[in-house]
Every structure is written in structure tokens, then in C-alpha cells.
Design brief:
Elements lengths: L1 H5 L21 H5 L8 H6 L19 H14 L5 H37 L1 H4 L4 E6 L2 H12 L7 E4 L17 H18 L4 H14 L6 E4 L12 E7 L3
Parallel strand pairs: 1-3, 1-4, 2-3
Helix pairs in contact: 4-5, 5-7, 7-8
Length: 246
């Protein structure tokens, strides 16, 4: 629009710290040309504008062990003894999801245990002058993590911040829904309402952000889904857990 108004001779200068939207299908350099000036991460650290980042890989496999797999196979064989081949094949497709369910439950337990250990062992988290964020890959995953953490020593000190609103949550299209879809939607809705109480989604998000920034000892962990990772000023946030495909 600017080029149409101002003509092709105008010089376009872009100030950006993030990529352009995917739908533009152009990189910043393709859109604006070569760099005039850059201010890189290590320079900002040296100037004490920001703190350095230190990465620690914590691999949590999403698979069940051979013992659980053998047990699942035995249960399936026992349940399908008298079924026709066609009925057994139909059930096989549903049964295949059981492995991922077992995996997800075990995985959440390991992540919850890992974070709870950090809350005890890492001084900023243990002493209440720092807090942390957990980046989840989806809303359902975020609430499974929240439920697990609420059942431990972090009860009342965690919150999920996402665009999901239990008052007008994503509806399941009639004729295309599955039991898994309905179960996940019901779970998200129930957990969100339990967490938010009498607050609206907007009110709860603002409350959670304020608590996170001002009272790190009370709001020790924010679980976020595509939220608060840029442009959110929280100096007390010391740790960032990333549990999603990057």
C-alpha cells in the first residue's frame, strides 16, 4: 500500500526483531533489502541491556517401554477373541491411540516431576525471587501439565495463558467428531473453568500476568500457548521450559 501511494522511488526501511508473516512469503531482506545496521544478541548482553541465555537439553521421550506395550497387546488380544476380522480391524485403529495415551500420561508425570525438583533445588525458584514459564505445544497439553502441577507442591501457584476461552471454546463439528475430540474439548473446558473461577478469560489473563511480574513467589510458573514470548516484560522470569516442536 505504501509503494502504491509513494511510488517505487521511495526508500523502504524496516525495523524488526521478528520474521515477517508466513503469508508474505518473503524474508525481511527480500522485502527491504540488505541490512543498514544490526544489533545482535551478544552485543545487547555485553551492553547489559539483556541477560544471556543458557540452554540445557532435557530429553523426555514420548514412548512407552516394552513392558507396557506387551501388556497393551495382551489386553487387546483378550478383548477381541470372539470378534470378526472386520470388527477387530476397526477396533485396532482405535486401540492404536492407547499407546499414545499411556505415553502422554507418563510424559506429563516426568515433566511435572522435573519442574517440581527445580522449584526445590534452584535458588531463584526455591527462594521466590524468580519464576519460570513453560511453553506448551497446545491448549490441551497445557492443561494436562497444569493439572499435574496443581496436584503437587505448586498448587495455586501456576496458571495457563492462551487464547482459549471456556465460554466460547472451539466447537466440535457434528459428523466429524471423535470420542477423543470430545474428551479433549470437555477436559480443556473443565480445567479452564476450574482454574479461572469467576473471572473471565481476559480478566484471568491480566491477573495472572500481573501476579507473575509482581509476585514471583506466588505465581511461580506460567504455562503459555503462543502467548507472552515477545513483548512481555517480566524481569523476574528466570527460567523458560520449552516443550513443543521448534
Amino acid at each position: 500500500a505504501m509503494r502504491k501511494i509513494m511510488g517505487n522511488d521511495v526508500m523502504m526501511i524496516g525495523f524488526t526483531g521478528t520474521p515477517l508473516l508466513k503469508k508474505n512469503k518473503m524474508t525481511s531482506m527480500e522485502q527491504f533489502g540488505s541490512f543498514i545496521h544490526t544489533y545482535k544478541f551478544d552485543e545487547a548482553v555485553a551492553d547489559h541491556v539483556i541477560l544471556d541465555l543458557r540452554y540445557e537439553a532435557r530429553n523426555v521421550e514420548q514412548k512407552i517401554d516394552d513392558g507396557d506395550k506387551t501388556r497393551i497387546d495382551r489386553i487387546f488380544d483378550a478383548k477381541t477373541t470372539n470378534m470378526t476380522p472386520r470388527a477387530k480391524e476397526a477396533l485396532q485403529r482405535k486401540w492404536a491411540t492407547l499407546q499414545s495415551i499411556y505415553s502422554s500420561d507418563e510424559r506429563v508425570k516426568r515433566i511435572v516431576r522435573d519442574i517440581c525438583e527445580d522449584m526445590i533445588l534452584l535458588p531463584p525458584l526455591a527462594q521466590g525471587y524468580g519464576n519460570a514459564m513453560l511453553v506448551a505445544g497446545g491448549v490441551y497439553q497445557a492443561y494436562t501439565d497444569w493439572q499435574g502441577l496443581e496436584g503437587k507442591r505448586l498448587k495455586g501457584k501456576t496458571a495457563v495463558v492462551s487464547s482459549y476461552d471456556p465460554q466460547n471454546g472451539v466447537s466440535i463439528t457434528q459428523g466429524h467428531s471423535t470420542d477423543a475430540d470430545n474428551d479433549e474439548e470437555t477436559f480443556k473446558c473443565n480445567m479452564a473453568k476450574k482454574m479461572m473461577g469467576d473471572k473471565s478469560a481476559i480478566q484471568f489473563e491480566e491477573w495472572a500476568k500481573t501476579e507473575f511480574v509482581d509476585h514471583p513467589g506466588s505465581m511461580k510458573l506460567l504455562i503459555v500457548v503462543d502467548k507472552l514470548l515477545t513483548g512481555f516484560d517480566a524481569p523476574k522470569a528466570t527460567y523458560l521450559y520449552i516443550d513443543k516442536h521448534m
